[in-house]
Amino acid sequence: MKPVFVIVACVALFVLAALPAAAASGPPPLSCYPGVGPCQETDHFSEMTFIGSPLPGCTTLTNWALFDTVGNGVRHINVNNSQDLWFTTTMVGATTIVQGSVVLDSNGNPISFTPDYSLPTFSGQLVQWFGSSVNNQNGTFSATGNFQGTSSTGASVSLHFNDHVNFTAAQPSIPNLSSLHFDVSCS
Question: pTM of the predicted model, to two decimals?
């Protein structure tokens, strides 16, 4: 059961770190991706908003949350002739975190968010990075982030996450559990 929980948490965090919520702001849609390569694309953006799932072991941030970061972001993708890809996203800036609830689609993806202002909100600085490298048989995905701020109750808040997973030719659609880690610390 624990490996399944960790896989679900990692996938949720990869989505959190890499993709903005559908109705939110962030990088423009990619024009460079496998299937249209070879190509390269670099995008700069100033705001990223995304929905994050509850983090295991984090008593400070116990619910779904909407993260809104305003600052400096850059995303880069490179696709070669074989359609292998390298992808990175970095974002740093002032961040507001509002807790609430979500409605999930049939695949478990959040499709709507309802703020709950009776729960503490947070403001501070977020730095996050996401990267992946994928070819026709192997892939690796990593993310890390740090948030330092203050809650609406006046308490100092610190959040750090770091995760990694890869897929290999032996089982290209199954995560390599010996490479899988999802580390969260918060206070």
Answer: 0.76
